[in-house]
């Protein structure tokens, strides 16, 4: 059994991918070719915002967004310790301080009231992460940001396709950033990412930042990077986008099936209990794209070992929160984010992809409950 089965999807779109890749080979515009512009237009439509800027990875999306907002030395950006490292990494890379605020123990996303308490004179932006495929509480976060005149960057690397009160992830704040890493909900066949915004000025700045700060050839008014999305990856993503809405639905079916099967075997919702085997909670008004289907268990490592013995792969996202990582400990108080610490010690994720069969889900749920 595979943790993420990309083969089933490949078989479904193989013919379309081949046609699109051959078209790129025929026109030969490998850098910023027509597929990139076409994809940007389709993605902007899908999210429901004016601008999409394709970039080379989710990490570059975060970097380009921060650069467009002029984040630099002496600045603070508020974010979560319970995320993939890139979130805080790009803040620190620009010489700014990632200020870590604890998570809500039910959703695993940054807690809006904690953000308000952490805002100080050096705060320049707020960067929530929509972890595991469910958006952070963006209305509450935007309300805090508005009170203090701060921009909000949603790290939506895991939530592309998710809905929040009827709107789509990536279109909920000043800038939305996502990743097309192969295992993400919308994945390429290599690295890729995108930034989204309604703001014309920020869109122009991000477009420059991802291409050496260039406004026209050999004219560089701003600093930038080589952070362009490859034409070949855009071609693959155009083929994947055609089946993406269906895949988002299938992901919800698989996630809800897991929850039903596990609760029928004694698991409780993370909303209703704090120990034992806990299933994820998708809050009313939210949908999840289940980038990960993540449970909690009291003795996580033992459960994971028992599943491994039955050929059921699992993963832990993330075993060490950023407040306990060597490169980030200098920025934060190690013991100030207890919910993140507790989650890091208890979470594990089950195999998750749109093509996971009902039989496999049954076998996995049975094994988890027995373990
Ligand atoms: C995957 C991920 C990133 C980085 O995306 P890449 O495309 O791998 O650079 C950033 N933030 C979060 C939350 C992620 O899950």
Automatic annotation (TrEMBL):
Statement: the UniProt record of this protein carries the keyword Transferase: yes
Keywords: Aminotransferase, Pyridoxal phosphate, Transferase
GO molecular function: transaminase activity
One Pfam entry name: DegT_DnrJ_EryC1
Protein name stated in the entry: Aminotransferase DegT
Signal peptide: none
Record InterPro entries: DegT/StrS_aminotransferase, PyrdxlP-dep_Trfase, PyrdxlP-dep_Trfase_major, PyrdxlP-dep_Trfase_small
Family according to the record: Belongs to the DegT/DnrJ/EryC1 family.
